[in-house]
Amino acid sequence: MKILVAPQEFKGSISALSAAEAGKTGILRVFPQAEVVLCPVADGGDGTLETLVEVSGGEVRTCSVQNPIGETIQAQWGAMGDGVTAVIEMARTSGLALLSLAERDPLNASTYGLGQAISEALDEGFRKFIVGI
């Protein structure tokens, strides 16, 4: 029997890869002869960076960028294990969660920080990009 385990992260508690591994452990307890294939997934939103970095053997990095209202923040981006692909979630540089309700003004907000994160990755030699929007 071949079983595919393809979970997304459980927000705030467990990564997609950890969920897949836990599923595999449970399946093998019941079906010890099963071939279990792990395929952690992400939908392009929260968790995409961690999932892609984790399954590729990469690492999460941090850079200084401007949030949507021009304040300097620390944003994470991912260096995938292939050494040429960077993963950037726009929410980490320009997302609504970075602002209070009073600060949310779409006519004056900017995604400049996303470009700064891309520039940082380019400076570090990355030439392929996955951007979660």
Automatic annotation (TrEMBL):
BP-aspect Gene Ontology terms: organic acid phosphorylation
One GO MF term: glycerate kinase activity
Record-linked InterPro entries: Glyc_kinase_flavodox-like_fold (IPR018193), Glycerate_kinase (IPR004381), Glycerate_kinase_sf (IPR036129)
Gene3D superfamilies xrefs: Glycerate kinase, domain 2
Protein name, UniProt field: Glycerate kinase
